[in-house]
Amino acid sequence: MSEAPMTSAVCFHDQHYTLDIGQDFLDDAIAGLLDSPKWASPKYFYDYRGSQLFDAICNQPEYYLTRAEEQVLADRAGDIAEVIGENATLIELGSGASRKVRTLLEAVKPRHYLGVDISRDFLIQSTERLAADYPWLDVHAAWADFTSPMHLPSGLDAGGRPVVFFPGSSIGNFTPALARMLLSNLANMLPPGGGLLIGVDRMKDREVLEQAYNDAAGVTAAFNRNLLTRYEIELGSDIDPDQFEHRAFLNEAEQRIEMHLVSRKAQTVALGGLRIPFDAGESIHTENSYKYSDEDFKTLAAHAGFESRALWHDPDRLFSVHYFERGSTLEFLPESLIPG
């Protein structure tokens, strides 16, 4: 791992050092478009432009998730600080603009902060802003794909309790099986007693859910199509993002919102030396957002070795914020008990 000062106030940790990022992107893109049905990995949404667009999504009036979670964090900041304790190391996954974490920084006063994101430039900007705004805080940035096993950088694995902060119901972007794997990776990264503060969206009325992913301003549509722009620019494809329509809907049986890019016409696109056909109306499944009951998510986390310690909701009970601790042993529940 490459570790070097990024600025005078931020220490940068390169955890992409074993990866050929461009080749991985191309391999994943080809695998998804050759499959039936077609799919794309949502982790590739988050180049610099994609991160900007997601930040804009969070400000759309239809997107209740950010407002509800921020209200929970603001209303319960004192309670959260009490369960985390003093001199903590706060590890934010998918840190993006690091907007929500500011409420925690002011309440918890951690010793260290580590922002983890796959978008390097966006990560650098956001952690530099945090370092400037919180001069008392030891700020670190890890350029990493947190869907793979991680370890705490040197210097952050001692002292107060390490606590992973995973906001935005991003856990919902993973199938239940992959979510279990991710949570297990986090449990393995943390020592016994290490914490997990995680935002989880709840099931609710279809209209509320579908409006949240189909904002009137079209920001979510632009975010979805930006993935195809990356195929054009970075992978040399001749795919035209404007020839694909954004579509998001509730799959009630699976308890998830699905996002798709639907081909407006029959067409063939070039990618990686291949010619890939699309039928009119054929879609690329780009993302899921699973919704959980409180008990189902507690069961999911328990399977990964986490013990529930606290649970908070916004006044309308649209959203939940859970606090778990990594147990003393990683004893998994029988597969039959796992939701999904």
Task: Describe the 3D structure.
34% of the residues lie in helices and 26% in strands. The chain has a nine-stranded mixed beta sheet, with helices on both faces. Strands 3-13-10-9 form a four-stranded mixed beta sheet. A hairpin with a 2-residue loop joins strand 11 and strand 12. One of its GO terms (biological process) is methylation. It holds the Pfam family Methyltransf_33. It comes from Larsenimonas suaedae.
**Architecture of the largest domain, according to CATH?**
3-Layer(aba) Sandwich
Give the radius of gyration.
Answer: 20 Å
Residues in helix, %: 25-40%
Work out the count of structural domains: 2
> For the residues shown, what is the average pLDDT?
91
Task: Work out the number of β strands.
Answer: 15
Percentage of β-strand residues: 25-35%
Q: Strands of the largest sheet, in order across it?
A: 1-2-6-5-4-7-8-15-14
Q: Count the helices. How many? A: 10
Biggest pleated-sheet summary: 9 strands, mixed
